[in-house]
Amino acid sequence: MSTIKPLTPLEIYKVLQKTNCKQCALPSCLAFAAAVVGGQKKLDDCPHLTDEEKDTLAPTLQARSTPEPRKAEFIDKLLEKMAVLDLEAVAFERGVSCKDGSISILSLGKEFHVDQSGQMKSSCHIIPWVQAPILSYLCYGTHTQITGRWVSFREIKGGIEWRGLFRSRCETPLKILADKHPELLNDIIELFAGKDVDGFDADIAVVLHPLPHIPICICYQAADGDLESDLNIFFDECCGTNLHIKSIYTLCAGLVQMFEKIAVHHS
């Protein structure tokens, strides 16, 4: 059976009029194309696409597949690894604590407890997308300490294959959120133990720790005259050693979903 190659933002962008009219409520046609691939926008949201153009794009768009892991199978494999994991041996190395057969790990300033069977408890709500990255972080075969050197997503091992999906489902929707809610990144600092940092060519640069040795930096540059806004997410170089690229993507996509809910609540 032949598979249909998924559409990329660039392929949709080539069909658009490229006027950046903003009638789709996004700053540019390229941002719209990325949002369509990411599922945040529909082809009908562009008033300039003809019915013929939409009919041409729609079947391929609907049939697109993504490299996202099958979550149930992925978690089952992680639970098998947890069952034989030497918790005390990995605790110090991964910046977590172990007591009475249970790991205590901080994620965005919130404490989670994981036992030998992989069952997770916390005083706060257990967010579904946190489970797989935490288990993967504990079970991953390699580990190193934070380096202080920042790299882009595509520079992480396996990142080139995932970069289109990462851009359309993580960086682009987060940029749109920051455009609409300028106070959001400051709220993130207060809510999730974030920290302002210098040294980036951006109006705001915020470092978060979704996991102890997984620092990420969100850099946002507001629009200025004819220059559009921009947002990029960077990772400490250790991230590619400490977590599989699938889990890094899952972690960031989950963060964006959570930030979207926070923005709606504040609105």
Walk me through what this model shows.
The protein is of the alpha+beta class and 267 residues long. It has three domains: 54 residues, 3-methyladenine DNA Glycosylase II, Chain A, domain 3, CATH 1.10.15; 69 residues, no CATH class; 117 residues. Helix 1 packs across helix 2 and helix 2 crosses helix 7. The longest helix is centred in the middle third of the chain and has 22 residues. The N and C termini lie far apart (47 Å). About 3% of the residues have low confidence.
- Unreliable spans are 63-69
- Overall pLDDT level: 86
What's the β-strand tally? 9
Shape: globular
Structural class computed from helices and strand pairing: alpha+beta
Helix count from the secondary structure assignment: 10
Order of helices and strands: HHHHHEEEEHEHHEEEEHH
Head-to-tail CA distance between termini: 47 Å
The largest sheet, given as strand count, sense and whether it forms a barrel, is: 5 strands, antiparallel
The amount of beta strand, in percent, is: 15-25%
Strand order of the largest sheet: 5-9-8-7-6
| Helical coverage, percent range | 40-55%
Number of domains: 3
Radius of gyration: 20 Å
